[in-house]
Write a structure and sequence with these properties.
Blueprint lengths: L1 E5 L8 H18 L3 H11 L12 H4 L7 H22 L1 H22 L11 H14 L4 E8 L2 E8 H18 L13 H14 L18
Antiparallel strand pairs: 1-2, 2-3
C-alpha cells in the first residue's frame, strides 16, 4: 500500500515540510555525484555506526538526511509529505522542525541500543518520519489516507482509515524488529526496524508536549 494523500485539511503553507524534503533531496543528489569509494567513506563518516557512536554523536542528526538509494529516498519523502503537512499545520513550522529532529534523534538512540555492536552505518529519515506518523495517529485518528492499492493485476486507490494503516505499519515494524534480534551479522545491511519503532513511539508521546496553533482557513491552499 502506497499512501498518496490525507483527507485531512491543511490550512497553512507547511513550508517546513517542503524545506525538509528539499534538504534530503539535495543531500542525496550530492551523494550520487560522488565516486563509489568516496560515497562509502561519506556514509561511514556521517551515518550512525552503533559500534563507534561514542565518538560521533553528531551522526545521530546527520544520518537522518542520508539515503541509500532512489527508492529509499522517494518512499521516505512521500510519507513525510503525506503525514508531515498535517502535523506541521497543527503545531506550526518551527515546532514541527524541532519535533522532527527530536524524533529522529530518539529513533537513532533506540537503534543503537538495539544493535550496539553493529558496524553497519544506519542512514535515512525513516526514524524521524516514523515520529511524524506516530503524531499523526494521535492527532488525526479518524482521518483517512488515499492509498494506492494493487489488487492482483490491477492498481486502484482506496480511502483507508489512518488509524488502521498506521497501526498495521507499526505491527509490521514490531514483528520484523523483534524477529531480527536473533541475527548476529554485524557487517551486513538491513532495515533499522528499531529506529522505526523508537521514532513512532516517541512521536506518539512527544506530540502531547507541543501546543497547537490556530488552524483558521487562510484561503491560499485548497483543502485536502
Amino acid at each position: 500500500m502506497i499512501p498518496l494523500r490525507s483527507t485531512e485539511r491543511v490550512y497553512s503553507k507547511t513550508a517546513a515540510t517542503g524545506v525538509l524534503i528539499a534538504i534530503n533531496v539535495l543531500v542525496f543528489f550530492y551523494q550520487v555525484s560522488m565516486p563509489q569509494d568516496a560515497l562509502a567513506e561519506f556514509v561511514e563518516r556521517w551515518g550512525i555506526v552503533p559500534d563507534a557512536i561514542s565518538g560521533h554523536l553528531s551522526t545521530l542528526f546527520t544520518a537522518m538526511f542520508l539515503h541509500g538509494g532512489w527508492m529509499h529516498l522517494i518512499g521516505n519523502m512521500l510519507f513525510l509529505w503525506v503525514f508531515g503537512r498535517n502535523v506541521e499545520d497543527l503545531i506550526g513550522s518551527g515546532r514541527f522542525v524541532l519535533f522532527y529532529l527530536v524524533g529522529g534523534l530518539i529513533s537513532g538512540i533506540v537503534q543503537v541500543i538495539a544493535s550496539p555492536y553493529s558496524r553497519v552505518p544506519t542512514i535515512g529519515a525513516s526514524g524521524a518520519i516514523a515520529g511524524v506518523m506516530g503524531a499523526y495517529l494521535i492527532k488525526f485518528p479518524r482521518s483517512k489516507i488515499v492509498t494506492l492499492v494493487p489488487i492482483i493485476v490491477f492498481i486502484t486507490t482506496m480511502e483507508i482509515p489512518a488509524a488502521l494503516m498506521l497501526l498495521w505499519w507499526f505491527v509490521i515494524q514490531l514483528a520484523s524488529g523483534f524477529g531480527s534480534l536473533g541475527e548476529r551479522d554485524y557487517t551486513g545491511g538491513g532495515t533499522a526496524w528499531f529506529a522505526h519503532i523508537g521514532g513512532f513511539v516517541a512521536g506518539m508521546l512527544l506530540i502531547r508536549m507541543f501546543p497547537t496553533v490556530s488552524r483558521r482557513w487562510r484561503g491560499w491552499q485548497d483543502a485536502e
